[in-house]
Amino acid sequence: MKVLVAGSGGQLGRALAATAPTGVTLIAPPEAEFDICNASEVAAVVAATAPDLVVNAAAWTAVDKAEAEEAAALAVNATAVGYLAAAAAGCGARFVQVSTDYVFDGEACRPYAPDTPPAPASAYGRTKLAGEFAAQAQHPAPLIIRTAWVYAAAGNNFVRTMLRLMAERDEVRVVGDQIGTPTHAASLARAIWGLHSHSGVFHWTDAGVASWHDFAVAIQDEALALGLLTRRVPVIPIPSSAYPTPARRPAWSVLDKSSSWAITGPARHWRHELVDCLHAMAQTDPGKAST
User: Fold this and answer.
1) pTM over 0.90
2) What is the rounded distance in angstroms from the CA atom of residue 146 to the CA atom of residue 167?
3) pLDDT tens for residues 29-67?
4) Which of 30, 155, 177, 186 is deepest in the core (most CB within 10 A)?
5) Residue 128, Cβ neighbours under 10 Å: how many?
6) Catalytic machinery residues
7) Pairing between β-strand 210-211 and β-strand 150-151 as defined by DSSP bridges
8) Which residues contact 221 (CB under 8 A, 6 or more apart)?
């Protein structure tokens, strides 16, 4: 099976390459050779490679910046998705679009099911929802996977930020009233490989629930055990109101994964996946793990 990945240099793109099953030929052009915002370039690359599956792992993820630059975010998160989906449909390939918990307003008190009506409360959420609509409009049977709180051993993400701050500061303050589920990019990649032959809207995160503060405490505990940090600092919970941001974050981001887990089997708990990620950091380049 030939699989074309857009966004191959991002944390999910790299995870897809690392977890690709036997029998998969991965086509992962760098961004400089695959501008997904260029319709003719997308059509040319897809036609030349003739993939069986196209996975869009690219996205505008600068959540706060999207508030001021929504048109630019929309170009990446929606318009480009339409180009990719149309090109995939044109060559008979399946199509996977990765979406987000931000399509919901975060005001629920139970996990969001895939058929819960979306109500995004930020520009980022609006553009990602528009991307879902573009995929559905341009491809006869796309697979849309919503996820949340994705991190990896490399790239810009919460885990690496916390390790840096914990190494530099005498205390770290972290929001404690936003609830969701940390999701290891490798876990999400494995889920994509397990779900790629299906269509419709699915949710996937690792198992369990945490606040950002819970996540930060776990990062410090596990990093100390692995020697990625050399001292413990106080991790202080704060309300969202004490850390204002341009974009409104969902207070509740827990997703109902029952339909995806029925296919792939249940995900591992987020804390186990965190340990795997930190082990990878320690083994790859411990000297840079907290930079």
Assistant:
1) yes
2) 33
3) 999 899 999 999 999 999 999 999 999 999 999 999 999
4) 186
5) 29
6) 124
7) unpaired
8) none
